[in-house]
């Protein structure tokens, strides 16, 4: 049984790594003026949001696989709309970066994610400025600077787009904790798409209408509908694979898988796109940045574990409270209530250890999750 469970976990991790790497390379191929020649990142992102929103609507309202969360207009206006705005911005800027810089260099810049998240958390008051974390952030920043200095095809515009997208995503994560968590809302991947995808689509419509619509023809999408459908389907599959991996593994495992995925993706990008080359300074800088990221993740996991160590007499009370909260926010309809609740609670407990940030995945994980891993496992530009 142990061997079978381990093999199943490795299989889930393999699916996550393959889908995440595949979606990134697929997006780059579609957007690149040298290959598919569809240089409209906002349009591609809107296709992803529209497709995800339709699928979520069908699952929630038509097939009733998932129950909607009790959402008032005030909560939607003050929480969901701001989060959707920054989410749409992060996807827009992140996808635009593919037009200017290589996939390998983009992955190296994504090492700045914990730096951006830490700064936004300090500014918003959800984290304190600590010397050990600050030194790790300095180490990550130095590594990224070295990697950028060694980039042969360095492009200022592409770099600015990518870094802006990273900070927009970091602010989205902090707002998720500040706004939704205080409201006591718990959103799973499907309900997240159900509420956020349509709103993000509307936010993207304005820049699309002003910037991309005048220069594109609808026939470009109509003639290649299979390409865009498969691209959006892969992004949606990645969303659910992330939730599946979180439910079966822990925070440390998913972070290690994310780092492994980044190295694999950097290597694959140089093969798929021969024009992107890696220098020794690229590798050195990225390795330094990853050292800082690993130390940052270790310190955050250590903090969370220390905060979870409660006296023995308080454990039953805490467990009862968490069970009631999970029961209240449970949104899975099945015939076998016991099995579904066990699976849901297990996944939720594992997910509470980590927030996976994958820039290819237009998902908002549960707002009750700890933000200890708002960092690397990433790849969300949708």
From TrEMBL:
Q: Which GO terms describe its cellular component?
A: membrane
Which keywords does this Swiss-Prot/TrEMBL entry list?
Membrane, Transmembrane, Transmembrane helix
Every Sugar phosphate transporter domain range:
11-297
InterPro entries on file:
Sugar_P_trans_dom (IPR004853), TPT_transporter (IPR050186)
Q: Specify the superkingdom.
A: Eukaryota
Q: Does the keyword Acetylation apply?
A: no
- Name the predominant localization: membrane
Q: Which cell locations does it reside in?
A: Membrane
Asked whether the UniProt record includes Transmembrane helix among its keywords, one would answer: yes
TM ranges: 7-26, 38-63, 75-93, 99-121, 133-154, 160-180, 192-211, 223-245, 252-273, 279-299
Topology of the protein relative to the lipid bilayer: Multi-pass membrane protein
Q: What is this protein called?
A: Probable sugar phosphate/phosphate translocator At3g17430 isoform X1
Natural source organism: Elaeis guineensis var. tenera
Q: What's the source species' lineage?
A: Eukaryota, Viridiplantae, Streptophyta, Embryophyta, Tracheophyta
